[in-house]
Specification:
The chain is mainly β. Helices cover about 0% and strands about 30% of the residues. It has strands at about 10-15, 25-30, 40, 55, 65-70, 80-85, 95-100, 110, 125, 135-140, 150-155, 165-170, 180, 195. It starts with 10 loop residues before the first strand and ends with a strand. The model is unreliable at about 1-45, about 50-55, about 55-60, about 65-70, about 75-80 and about 85-195 (pLDDT under 50).
């Protein structure tokens, strides 16, 4: 159609103001930029995917060496998979399945609800206002801070567990190199076991 630029070594099937695909496939709607060495199937105001797949809705940025399946205002995934709703930032070398206002996951899996921060080298499955897990697992409710090199299963207002397991209720502080199974207002166990009220 009018205002489309040609495809170099690829296919360009588009509507007005679409730019050509270089070494890839480009099937899109207005104001989409071309895909380089990949597939680009999108709606308006999506930027091209380089060496990957971009299937998105408006205002999604391209995936570099990965897959990008998102809704508006999602940023690109680098070397990973990004399946998100609005206002989620990209996953680098991992999987990102989230709802609005989630930040990046680097080298891990992030499955979250709004206002969760990214997991680095681990798994983050949480509800709002949880901070990221570094090299561990974080399964928590709101206002839990991340676990470093361990498992964190808690309720609100629990602080970090480093190199151990923390299964707690509100207002418990972290366990370092040990196990902490407690009710509210217990402080952390260092290199031991704490089972208390």
């Amino acid at each position: 159609f009018p205002g489309n630029n040609g495809g170099s070594n690829g296919n360009s099937n588009g509507f007005p103001a679409n730019n050509g695909g270089s070494n890839g496939n480009f099937n899109n709607f207005p104001s989409n930029n071309g895909g380089l060495n990949g597939n680009f199937n999108s709606f308006p105001v999506n930027n091209g995917g380089s060496n990957g797949n971009l299937n998105g809705f408006p205002a999604n940025n391209g995936g570099l060496n990965g897959n990008f399946n998102g809704f508006p205002a999602n940023n690109g995934a680098s070397n990973g998979n990004l399946n998100t709703l609005p206002s989620n930032n990209g996953g680098s070398n991992g999987n990102f399945n989230g709802f609005p206002s989630n930040n990046d996951v680097s080298n891990g899996n992030l499955n979250t609800f709004p206002s969760n921060n990214g997991a680095s080298n681990g798994n983050l499955n949480s509800l709002p206002s949880n901070n990221g897990a570094s090299n561990g697992n974080l399964n928590s409710l709101p206002s839990n801070n991340g676990g470093s090199n361990g498992n964190f299963n808690g309720f609100p207002s629990n602080n970090d567990v480093s190199n151990g397991n923390l299964n707690t209720f509100p207002s418990n502080n972290g366990a370092s190199n040990g196990n902490l199974n407690s009710l509210p207002s217990n402080n952390g166990a260092s290199n031991g076991n704490l089972n208390s009220l």
